[in-house]
Automatic annotation (TrEMBL):
CDD domains: iduronate-2-sulfatase
Protein name: Iduronate 2-sulfatase
Function: Lysosomal enzyme involved in the degradation pathway of dermatan sulfate and heparan sulfate.
GO molecular function: iduronate-2-sulfatase activity; metal ion binding
Domain of life: Eukaryota
Enzyme Commission code: 3.1.6.13
InterPro entries, sorted: Alkaline_phosphatase_core_sf, IDS, Sulfatase_N
Cleaved signal peptide residues: 1-19
Amino acid sequence: MKIGFFISILNVLVSQIASKRPQNVLFIVVDDLRPALGCYGEKSAHTPNIDALAEHSIVFRNAYAQQALCAPSRNSFLTSRRPDTLHLYDFNNYWRDFTGNFTTLPEYFKEHGYYTSSFGKVFHPGISSNWSDDQPYSWSAEPFHPPSQKYMNAAVCRGLDGKLHRNIVCPVEVEFQPGGTLPDVETLTAAVDFLHDVRNSSKNPFFLAVGFHKPHVPLKFPKQYINLHPLESVELPKARSYPSLLPTVAWNPWTDVRKREDVAALNVSFPFGPMPDSFARKIKQSYFAAVSYVDDLIGHLLNAVRENGYFDNTIIVLIGDHGWSMAEHGEWAKFSNFEIALRVPLLLYVPGQTDFKTSHLYKYTHVLTELVDIFPTLVELTNLSQSLPLCPENSKKIKLCTEGISLLPVIQNMQKKTNNATLNMDWKKAAFSQYPRPGIFPTMHPNSDKPHLRDIKVMGYSLRTWQYRYTEWVLFDNHNFIPRWANMIGAELYNHKLDPHENINMVNNKEMINIVQLLRAQLHAGWRYSLPKHLVKNIYN
Ligand SMILES: *[C@@H]1O[C@H](CO)[C@@H](O)[C@H](O)[C@H]1NC(C)=O
Ligand SMILES: *[C@@H]1O[C@H](CO)[C@@H](O)[C@H](O)[C@H]1NC(C)=O
Ligand SMILES: *[C@@H]1O[C@H](CO)[C@@H](O)[C@H](O)[C@H]1NC(C)=O
Ligand SMILES: *[C@@H]1O[C@H](CO)[C@@H](O)[C@H](O)[C@H]1NC(C)=O
Ligand SMILES: *[C@@H]1O[C@H](CO)[C@@H](O)[C@H](O)[C@H]1NC(C)=O
Ligand SMILES: *[C@@H]1O[C@H](CO)[C@@H](O)[C@H](O)[C@H]1NC(C)=O
């Protein structure tokens, strides 16, 4: 009896020591990647490497960015605070100098003994990360940027006339590119070198962040990838014109697609288009080819993880920073509050915990998740802290807190292996996002796709529940960062059960009055009141 007791104590101690083993983190961010992946059921995708990672991961089917623009989205998930808290809706402010001295995800790991390293586009470069990827705070070493990224918008795309252009559709021969390479190839090489070198170094445990630039425009990729996506196989969405009941403020005129030489030559009318179908197919083909190219690079990266013996002790997260519209509603690019611009891939691989190989059913979850959830999740998975505190209403002075929640309960629920386990859990009731506009009607100047803070007059607040997306566009005080809910400019309601592509705005349907009232109250109350029940109680306390 006593001996058995001691043995079990011993077992507990041993397993506790074993469980304290540090876990590395590999954080992969893909620029402008919507869930155009095999593991998300996208039939046109050719993404064997990401799909293979998905075999070992939880695939979050309903994951959302907080704003469909690079800098605000990235600063948001890297600090776990929302755009309204960071006061960043454009590219032009650095939170530490402008808002508050908030701790970032990599900084937190660095402070807890991790070696943190950044390759490629992780923070958005420029003012929003103080021209330094938030150095010296976030990273243990100088972040790596691929030298050939300086040719990002150079005239390197061979046109039908045989000359070089600044096109959106840009399959290339890599050896003839300036420098004989492409940015994502350089990023991959540097990250793989890191993985080879880190094994016998003192850089352990590590937090390795790798950011790929494609499939962001221009769609420049090694031309052989186009063979995986024959033009005849490219399908356009059925509804691809301006939705009749859409308020104009919701529309993004896709300025950065229009300005490419090949698109400009089509004389597409501003702001509503349409883009000719024949060219729409070419863009979509190139987007999928660019995704296949990045998938290949990610395959090499994951091989390096395995070859160096890190697959069993490295947590892997893969995300897109926001979605990308390809002719849905007649729109292109991000810059909106539509599902297609906000929904992102989110894969989470935790060694020994997410290998639900027994059945495909258990790999997927439809629980609503937001990119702000990643920071608290990684902190808990590595046992660096039991949990991050939830940010109070005014968190300007608080360095470390989260506006997301840990996804650990989802993993634990899925381990119960009942195919609807996560449906019945106490979980957040909505995902929140927002997008600013300079006015009611789409404009080139100011650019209504990406207005500067000083020009922002309207904010669109969007709520995604299990069944609906509800969005309100209201006047916005850009000095005090306050929405004027009483001054509504337009609203949208989509029923995802009947209309998953958001083509029918039902906000003025008489039968929907009660639903609209409920969603409206939920939106105005804010994200805190849609948290799991046990956390909402804490707010009231
Ligand atoms: C964290 O702690 C839990 C529970 O003690 C354990 O199962 C897990 O393996 C630990 N993870 C790490 C990375 O130490
Ligand atoms: C902001 O935080 C960083 C890192 O946590 C710290 O080194 C720095 O002194 C802080 N700056 C201010 C102004 O408090
Ligand atoms: C941002 O960069 C500027 C210029 O290098 C520097 O003076 C300033 O201290 C930096 N801000 C922070 C919070 O480190
Ligand atoms: C790491 O060190 C071990 C033992 O010193 C050696 O056998 C191995 O080749 C080294 N690995 C690398 C990648 O340098
Ligand atoms: C676009 O407009 C230019 C100048 O008006 C004209 O030369 C060209 O043929 C037009 N292209 C198309 C595709 O209509
Ligand atoms: C799914 O959940 C319902 C309760 O909501 C339960 O009755 C049912 O047995 C569950 N099905 C499976 C396969 O777990």
